[in-house]
Design brief:
alpha/beta, 22 strands, seven-stranded mixed beta sheet, six-stranded mixed beta sheet
């Protein structure tokens, strides 16, 4: 249970200690398809007793797994990759039904998750210590690197597959056990799917435990459980601050990717057509529901009108509608609260003096009541303090802010509490590099857009965009700890 990867499989069970089991409570959560607004699955609503059972199983199983040979842990990750690839079509369909992901989003999610797991499979052999000579005669130092213990993963709803994989696979690869709590909107693709993948991969019982439920009911118990040694969280800055404070009570290590307000800077000598190609993808892929998507287009006044006109043309050319249509680029927003918030940002930005060039409304289609599809939206005459620019709007919205010189562009880009990602288009690469160096953010992409994630390159944010990091050596540091052992090979002289 479940016996397949399809949306119509029976997902109504938790996964604890290697068993699909009922929750302590009979309460359930309905999974709604954002495209059709219909219920497509039911999952358990766990309570704190279920959370405690998951951590108990994880703590019990972890020490034996930590002692397993690196090749054993690597093999399990590789088998999970094989399961992921073998069922990629079903998983892409799951993402459409649960997350409103288009075909592009689903296929990209599988590709990135495969890359994340592939990099994780190298970690068992990278988990090495160090050796050092001593200032004390006859003494030597050995520094071992060991798993932290139990890793808590709290995953988001926007890209639930790959943003869960980037924490779950490395944690298991480095000898930890995991308790995974997926977002309420995406409990299958962010949670129960992983139980199925790793069960099929032969992961020993207890090492991956999945508890689905409302954050209001079990969130604090998950984030602050005394058996939790690391908390890996992806989500909003507001919730992240609370999770961090809760985890901090146990002095748990934290790896947190939070919100972003990412700027796409376009200089006067940039190739505008190329900048628009990047902008269209960076603003509208997965409806803009990406922490590293373009939130603000910061464009030099000399090319501003040309840029706005071209962006409007591209926005209006995109296929918009149900995620179940093969050609859809812009599909539904995850739920009403997200939709209504972003539309409110648009309305208040226009009231503040911006011009609505296109979009700004929901799209009615196929007789769906109360559609969650928001039209691709372009706003011109925007200033950095307007609601759609100063907030992380998290939607298919492109506010375009003009600037007159490079210093002003950098000031606009940095005028936010966030520091997650950014991009620059400049005809002169030296100028592009200068701007990138001055942007106060965890990553900047020159002559590209900010939605980039490669598992062998460190991914992190600054300021209100998070602490810790993912990928490459950054996640290895988060998931392991060092232990210093010294060896005195001959008698030591002491002062008394």
């Amino acid at each position: 249970m479940p016996d397949s990867y399809a949306i119509d499989a029976d997902w109504n069970a938790l996964y604890v200690d290697g068993e699909w089991a009922a929750a302590e409570s009979d309460e359930t959560l309905a999974v709604e398809d954002p495209s059709t607004r219909e219920q497509v699955a039911t999952v358990p609503a766990a309570v704190e007793a279920d959370v405690d059972a998951a951590y108990e199983a994880a703590a019990e199983a972890q020490s034996e797994w930590a002692a397993a040979p690196p090749a054993r842990r690597e093999a399990v990750i590789q088998d999970a990759i094989e399961a992921l690839q073998s069922h990629s079509d079903d998983i892409t369909d799951l993402l459409a039904h649960e997350a409103g992901g288009s075909q592009i989003m689903g296929e990209t999610s599988v590709q990135i998750a495969t890359d994340q797991a592939g990099e994780a499979a190298t970690l068992p052999r990278q988990t090495k210590g160090d050796h050092a000579a001593s200032n004390v005669p006859g003494k030597e130092h050995i520094v071992k690197r060991e798993p932290q213990g139990v890793v808590t993963v709290i995953s988001p709803w926007n890209f639930p597959l790959n943003l869960s994989m980037r924490a779950v696979a490395p944690a298991l690869a480095t000898g930890n056990a995991v308790v995974l709590k997926p977002a309420t909107n995406t409990p299958i693709t962010g949670g129960l799917l992983f139980a199925k993948l790793f069960e099929d991969a032969g992961l020993p019982a207890g090492l991956l435990n999945v508890v689905t439920g409302r954050g209001s009911a079990i969130g604090d118990r998950v984030a602050g459980h005394p058996e939790s040694d690391v908390v890996a969280f992806t989500g909003s800055t507001e919730i992240g601050r609370h999770v961090a404070a809760t985890a901090g009570e146990n002095l748990a290590e934290q790896s947190m990717e939070l919100g972003g307000n990412n700027a796409h800077v376009v200089t006067a000598d940039a190739d505008v057509e190329r900048a628009i190609d990047s902008a269209t993808f960076g603003s509208f892929v997965h409806q803009g529901q990406v922490c590293i998507s373009i939130n603000r287009h910061v464009v030099h006044e000399d090319v501003y009108d040309e840029y706005v006109a071209a962006l409007v043309d591209r926005a209006e050319s995109l296929a918009v509608g149900s995620a179940h249509e093969a050609d859809t680029v812009v599909g539904p927003i995850i739920d009403e609260s997200q939709r209504d918030e972003m539309l409110d940002y648009v309305e208040r930005t226009v009231d503040a003096g911006a011009t609505l060039e296109t979009g700004g409304e929901t799209l009615d289609y196929d007789g769906v009541d109360d559609s969650l599809v928001v039209e691709p939206t372009v706003l011109s005459d925007v200033t950095n303090d307007m609601p759609a620019a100063c907030n992380e709007h998290f939607g298919p919205i492109a506010p375009v802010v003009p600037f007159s010189d490079i210093d002003e562009a950098v000031a606009i880009a940095n005028d936010t509490e966030y520091g997650l990602a950014g991009s620059v288009h400049a005809g002169d690469l030296g100028t592009g590099m200068d701007i990138a160096d001055r942007m106060e953010t965890g990553q900047v992409h020159i002559n590209d857009q900010p939605i980039n994630d490669e598992a062998h390159v460190t991914f992190s944010g600054t300021e209100a965009s998070g602490v810790g990091g993912y990928n490459d050596g950054a996640i290895l540091e988060q998931l392991t700890e060092t232990k210093w052992i010294s060896l005195q090979r001959e008698p030591r002289e002491y002062p008394f």
